[in-house]
Amino acid sequence: MPGMFGIRPGKWVMTVLDVRTARPDQRIAGETGDWEVIIGLEVHAQVTSKSKLFSGASAAYGGEPNAHVSLVDAAMPGMLPVLNKYCVEQAVRAGLGLNAQINLWSRFDRKNYFYPDLPQGYQISQYKHPIVGEGEVEVEVDGDPEPLVVRIERLHLEQDAGKSIHDLSPKETFIDLNRAGVALMEIVSRPDIRSGKEAAAYFAKLRSILRALGVCDGNMEEGSMRADVNVSVRRPGEKFGTRCEIKNVNSLKFIVQAVEYEARRQIEILENGGVIDQETRLFNAATGETRTMRSKEDAHDYRYFPDPDLLPLEIDPAWVEAIKANLPELPDAKKKRFISDYGLSAYDARVLSAESEAAAFFETVARGRDAKLAANWVSQELFGVLNKAGLELSASPVSADQLGGLLDLMADGTINGKIAKEVFAKMVDTGESAGVIVEREGLRQVTDLGAIEAAIDSLIAANPDKAAEVKEKPKAFGWWVGQVMKAMDGKANPAAVNALLKARLGLE
Amino acid sequence: MKQADSAATAWALVRQGNSAAMAIDERTVRKAAKLARLDLAEDRVAPMTRELVAIMAWIEQLNEVDVTDVEPMTSAVAATLPLREDVVTAGGDPALVLANAPRSADGFFIVPKVVE
């Protein structure tokens, strides 16, 4: 962890260190050679507060138009902002979760621009002195052997804007200020990302950390988390090119699409002898394309200055220590524990540790049972069913204890693995426990050797040719196992079937 | 300091090539007015530029003070930033919020079409 506390604001230095060159397989082939794409993300995450950053109006999603608006949010003259302590605490928690420096002295600035959904005429943000400084996040990318380290430049607190609705009238715009003043954390990464896939994995990791901390609900559909994606291209290893910022991309899939489209667009311009204009662009989810949002004439000039309505934010190191002492276990620590305590593979450990709820579910199932088997059943069977049905884990038809009960019936030999899948499907349909289903449907495993032998003998009698053949072709053995299981409605103990078949067919 | 004096100082600084005072030209004034949505009449541009140059030059004199090892002053009051608890204490009255709006309907403010 870098220096834990910044006591006083240091010199604000805007240096961008280039620490990564894209792997050859990440390069994009152009007409005139290979290109490398350089990506940095600015992620806006809404703080899970009840009220707004500087006012006592509700921060809840939705609501009747302008029902969650105080006179502060509506920027009535004479109204003064008062900072929400809970939001400050959540920003500190997020900073600690990102292994970042917590700045004990930070300041709020006004970012000035005019737009109808910004009644103050400025957004209160933190410019030169953010509450959280440099940190880093380790990101696992599917298929990549080594995790990627994305450096965090800063995290600061700022106000959200209101909502403009353009499609209710052809000549007018309707304004709802319910979101105006809601607390956001803006998390700015360094340009350490080299592909759309990496960008999506980084966003997913941030979401997982913020959700584990409880500082943001991560609900992308409601806009609780959204990304501004900065994209530029260059020849491999050369100097950074001019970047374009793609605003408000709100799903992992769209992040990948936006990066791919934007990189292609820039490469095409450069290869045709053009230059890239630094500009803000919008992503169109319907077409997967980006388009210019603001023309160059109105290039950003926010004329930041310290907000005279707010004193600097000074926080007590003892408070930070207390927050740190009460942090929940974060996904990375959980993943390590799942590997060391339960013997899970790195992949299973990552899948099961990403979300606190799934991790708790797995641990309930694994407690006192075969952990690897529990991991398989949770991440393969259960997640498979939930994904297919589009259900959240909280709406799972099978509880952790019920799934554990199913595993117990396998462990004590009551049912075999094949029947277990059948029982599980019925548990999903009915919500009943495994034991109830097994008893009612008579699915207990047959361990009666006599019954198994009888089934084998009648099969041999019916298939003398195959019985002779199997001695020459050991691969044909599988057919026999299948036939015996079929004859016994899948309920035979597989180990007993194997042993008895081998003996009866003379394969020992 | 009398105004005439400060203006004289300003021009002296401009002649010496002082950076901050030099930075304000008519183009800068037009841009600042545009960004602030001020409708600055054409015949006001030149006088406004002179006035701003004078003000900047006057402020420039602060650079003569040695502030090495002096912490930046952030407020005139010796107080700490008050914080509030996270409790909903306001809102719930759209009519109050919309009371001064030139136009509103169905609880929304209505403004001329803005399209990005």
Largest sheet of chain B: 2 strands, antiparallel
- SS content category of chain A: alpha+beta
- Rg of chain B over CA atoms, rounded to whole Å, is 23 Å
Low-confidence stretches of chain A: 7-14
- Oligomeric assembly: heterodimer
The amount of beta strand of chain B, in percent, is 5-15%
Helix segment tally of chain A: 15
User: How many β strands of chain B by DSSP?
Assistant: 3
Largest sheet of chain A: 9 strands, mixed
The residue-averaged pLDDT of chain A reads 90
Helices and strands in order:
The complex is a heterodimer of chains A (508) and B (116).
Chain A: E1 5-6, E2 28-30, E3 33-46, E4 83-84, H1 85-97, E5 102-103, E6 105-106, E7 109-112, E8 122-125, E9 135-139, E10 148-159, E11 163-165, E12 172-176, E13 183-189, H2 196-213, E14 225-234, E15 244-249, H3 252-271, E16 280-284, E17 289-292, E18 305-306, E19 313-314, H4 317-325, H5 331-342, H6 346-353, H7 356-366, H8 371-389, H9 400-411, H10 417-430, H11 434-441, H12 449-462, H13 464-469, H14 477-487, H15 494-504
Parallel strand pairs in A: 1-5, 15-16
Antiparallel strand pairs in A: 2-3, 3-13, 3-14, 6-19, 7-8, 7-18, 9-10, 10-13, 11-12, 14-15, 16-17
Chain B: H1 3-16, H2 19-23, H3 26-35, H4 42-60, E1 83-84, H5 94-98, E2 104-105, E3 108-112
Kindly describe this structure.
The complex is a heterodimer of chains A (508) and B (116). With 508 residues, chain A is α+β, with helices and mostly antiparallel strands. Chain A is 37% helix and 19% strand. Chain A is built from 15 helices and 19 strands. In chain A, strands 2, 3, 9, 10, 13, 14, 15, 16 and 17 form a 9-stranded mixed beta sheet that branches. The longest helix of chain A has 20 residues, at 252-271. Chain A is elongated, with a radius of gyration of 30 Å. The termini of chain A are far apart. Mean pLDDT of chain A is 90; it is low at 7-14. Residues 1-7 of chain B have low confidence and may be disordered. Chain B is flat, with a radius of gyration of 23 Å. In chain B, helix 1 (3-16) packs across helix 4 (42-60). Helix content of chain B is 46%, strand content 8%. With 116 residues, chain B is mainly alpha-helical. In chain B, strand 2 (104-105) and strand 3 (108-112) form a beta hairpin. At the A-B interface, strand 4, helix 1, strand 12 and strand 19 of A face strand 1, helix 5 and strand 3 of B. Strand 12 of chain A pairs antiparallel with strand 3 of chain B.
